[in-house]
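Handoff note, outgoing to incoming analyst
You'll be picking up this chain. Sequence as last confirmed:
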Amino acid sequence: MKKNKKIYLVSSGTGGHAAPILLMYKKLLNTPNFDPTILHSGSDIENKLFLNTKSKRIISAKFDRNSTYKKLISYPITLLGIIQAKALLLFKRPDLIFSKGGYGSVPVLFMARFFKIPYFIHESDSHIGLANKLFAGKAEKVFLGFPKEVYNEDVSDEKYKYTGQIVNALPKIKKEVKKTIYITGGSLGAESVNGVVYKIIDKLVDKYKVYHQVGDNNILKAEEIKSKLDKNEESYKVFGFSAELSKEAFAKADLVVARAGANTIGEIAKNKKASILIPYPHAAQNHQMKNAKYLEKSGSAFLIKENNLNEKYLLERIEYILSNKRNADVLGEKIFKAIKSDGADTVYAEIIKSNKD
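Most recent structure output, in case you need it:
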C-alpha cells in the first residue's frame, strides 16, 4: 500500500497569503496519496478561511522595521515559533513544504533548511519579500508571480520559474441590470479609499450597482453612510470581510477598484476585469506601486497614486471606463495577456512531479 505524501502549506497572515494556500490545499486534498496540512500564523482571516481544513497555527511575529520596540519583541516570539516548528518537523516530517512567504514562514523554513527538507516558495509580488529572500537560496524552486524581467533581484537561476498568480476562476453569476463596480481595499479594507468613495457614493449609485468591501473595522461607518442615501440604497452593498460576497462582487463586476496587491491583480487578470489600481503607499519596498506600474505600462490597468486620489479624479476615471463597453473589455483583455493567472496548475504539477516515487 502506497504511503501518503505529507505536504505542509505555509500561510502568513493576510488574505493574499491565505487564499492561494487554501486553493493549493483543496487541489492536493483531492489528489490520491497526498496528505496536505496548512501551517499558518493564526490571523482572523486565516482562522476564517482555514476553518474546515487540516491546519495548525505556528507561533510567528511580524518584523516591524519602523519600531525598535516591536522589532525586539518579535525576536523571542520568532524563537518560540522555531522551537515549535522544530518539534513538528522532527516528529511529523513532511515530504515537501510549499510556502507563500511572509513572516509566518520564517520558523518553518528555518527548520526545513536545518533538517534538509525540500521546500518550494511562491513570490506573488514584483519584488521578492524579505522572508523569501532569506530562504530562496536553499529552495528547490522559487515560483514568480510576475515575469522575470520585472524583478530587480537576480532571478536568472533556473530554479526561478515564472508561473504567475495562484488564483481561482470565478463562478458564473447572473449580472446586475446596472453596470457594477466592486471596490475593495483587500481583506482588511482601505480607509483612505473608503473615505473618497463615501464622498461620491450618491453619484455612483444613481448609475451603478456598487459592492464595497470596507474591512471589518469600517463596517459601522459604511452602514451609517448607506443609511443616509436618499435613494438607491439597494444599489450600495457594503461588507467587511466575506470570501463568498467577494466572489459574488468580483463575478458581477464590470469594473474593479482596488489596491495593487498581487493576489487581487491575479484575480482581475484571470477573470478579465477592467480595473483602477490604487497602491497602498506603505507596502514593503513599495511593491504595490511596482505591481501597478508594470500593468499601467502595458495599458492594462489605470493607476491612481494615493497622493493624487480625490473624489473628482476617481469619479472621472470610473465614468470614462464604464461609458463605453469597449473601454472595459479592452482593459480586461490586456491584463489577461499581461500576467499569467494559472499559477495554481503549474505549481500543482511541480509538486506532483517532485513527489513521484
